[in-house]
Amino acid sequence: MSNFIIMTDSACDLPHQVAEENEILVLPLTLNIQEKSYRNYLDEREISTKEFYQMQRDGVIAKTAAANMDELTRFMKPALEAGKDVLYLAFSSGLSSTCSAAMLAAEELCEQFPERKVFVVDTLSASLGQGLLVYLAAQEKKRGKSIEEVRDFAEQNKLRLCHWFTVYDLNHLKRGGRVSAATAMVGTMLNIKPVLHVDNEGHLIKVETARGRKASLNALVNHMEKTAVDPSEQTIFISHGDCLEEAEALAKTIEERFGVKKPILINPIGPVIGAHSGADTMALFFLGTQR
């Protein structure tokens, strides 16, 4: 029987069933919409992705909140009390303070439970990029690896976890300070779609622009072609802002171009990430030679 538990937060955007099947415990992060607070559970018990994106398309603005040290302490403590060690794979420190709160919680819990181990990995990842790293770590655990070996696997591979995004509406990035108001206005007028990735510091960075939606989606696949390691054999994830048909079409393009043998996992971008990326965002995740 394994003596440690892999934990993460709901910024990972994993399907609830995948988290359960792989014994991954997930802390729901919080968002506020029209003065009402929701917890972003993967099973959508408080707010569904469909409901969230409909509200967003209706002009409602959601605000998100990082997990604090007390929340993370309460989340991890039951596992330690049950005699288990904890490996927490955290949402990128470049996008949230959740990771630093997890590290503080780990320090406190190690003092309370000196016989137990609590490790925190800053994934420098988001959405199903974070989810893919967590999933791959869980496969290492299933192979019988120790908590230190799984931690080291995550550390060694996190900067190989490629994130490529394109967004439909630049105004969400404007609100988050990712692009200027002028860029958002001109881009919207000219139907310009930014192509972005998460860099080695865990920040969301604009890399290029494409004219129109089709060109922006093709750009994601082209970037994959440049850096992906053995794409026909690896696990690939796609997340989307309530645009499933386009996500399925993107997956089909990837399967045909690279001869992918494993099923590509497709899942919606949850409300915490979606509050900043917006409806119709498309994101592609895979292992590459570099980000």
Describe the structure.
- This protein is α/β, with parallel strands linked by helices and 291 residues long.
- It has eleven helices and 13 strands.
- Strands 10-9-8-13-11-12 form a six-stranded mixed β-sheet, with helices on both faces.
- Helix 10 (244-258) links the parallel strand 11 and strand 12 (265-268).
- Helix 9 (213-227) runs parallel beside helix 10 (244-258).
- The radius of gyration is 19 Å and the shape is globular.
- The model has no long low-confidence stretch (mean pLDDT 94).
List keywords for this structure.
single chain, four-stranded parallel sheet, alpha/beta, 291 residues, six-stranded mixed sheet, 11 helices
Q: Unreliable stretches, pLDDT < 50, 5 or more residues?
A: none
Number of helices: 11
Beta-strand share of residues:
15-25%
Mean pLDDT: 94
Using only C-alpha atoms, the radius of gyration works out to: 19 Å
What letter string, H or E per element, gives the SSE order? Answer: EHEEEHEHEHEHHEHHEEHEHEHE
Q: What is the terminal-to-terminal distance?
A: 35 Å
**Helical residues, percent:** 40-55%
Topology:
Blueprint: E1 4-9, H1 16-21, E2 24-27, E3 29-33, E4 36-40, H2 49-57, E5 62-65, H3 69-81, E6 85-90, H4 98-112, E7 118-122, H5 127-142, H6 147-157, E8 161-166, H7 170-175, H8 181-189, E9 192-198, E10 204-211, H9 213-227, E11 237-240, H10 244-258, E12 265-268, H11 271-277, E13 282-287
Parallel strand pairs: 1-2, 1-6, 6-7, 11-12
Antiparallel strand pairs: 3-4, 3-5, 8-9, 8-13, 9-10, 11-13
